[in-house]
Structure to design on (192 residues):
């Protein structure tokens, strides 16, 4: 009986999470329908892209591309790069690393040209993940280090911890356990 009650409680929690998420998506769509065609609309399109990137990647790519087009129209490079980042995540979630790599390289050029430092760090980290997944560990480590250097200069502890975790994971894949443990511990300490 206790197990049945526990299972029902868990199901109710997940059902409420699903309802809240649907409400959030409905609210974003409603706001988008009345928003002016400016950075507000770009940001709302990116929110939709972010919400869908792992669950409905095709929808994420659709909304991300709309954000890119509007960003181009209103000359908003930061919006364009951030929309491209969400599109990249959608492509990697479906295993299309070739398309993700193509978009990353395009986005890096835009970020560098417009001095978008934080986005540049994010893109180097994403590029490192693509190389890690293709087993080019040395290239992945170099990109993660570039990303880490930028995040460290920005004192962005969330991403400082995350990129160290990526480095630790890469060392683990290389069977370099001491380095993997070192970076995993550093990531953990920063996350705390």
């Amino acid at each position: 009986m206790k197990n049945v009650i526990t299972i029902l409680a868990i199901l109710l929690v997940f059902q409420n999470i699903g309802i809240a998420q649907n409400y959030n998506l409905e609210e974003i769509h409603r706001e988008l329908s009345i928003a002016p065609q400016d950075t507000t609309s770009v940001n709302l399109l990116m929110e939709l892209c972010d919400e869908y990137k792992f669950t409905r990647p095709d929808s994420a790519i659709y909304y991300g591309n709309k954000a890119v087009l509007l960003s181009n129209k209103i000359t908003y490079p930061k919006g364009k790069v951030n929309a491209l980042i969400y599109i990249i995540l959608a492509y990697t979630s479906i295993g299309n690393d070739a398309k993700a790599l193509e978009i990353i390289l395009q986005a890096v050029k835009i970020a560098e040209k417009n001095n978008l430092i934080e986005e540049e760090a994010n893109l180097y980290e994403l590029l490192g993940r693509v190389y890690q997944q293709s087993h080019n560990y040395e290239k992945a480590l170099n990109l993660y280090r570039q990303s880490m250097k930028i995040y460290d200069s920005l004192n962005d502890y969330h991403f400082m911890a995350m990129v160290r975790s990526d480095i630790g994971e890469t060392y683990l894949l290389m069977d370099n356990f001491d380095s993997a443990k070192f970076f995993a511990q550093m990531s953990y300490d920063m996350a705390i």
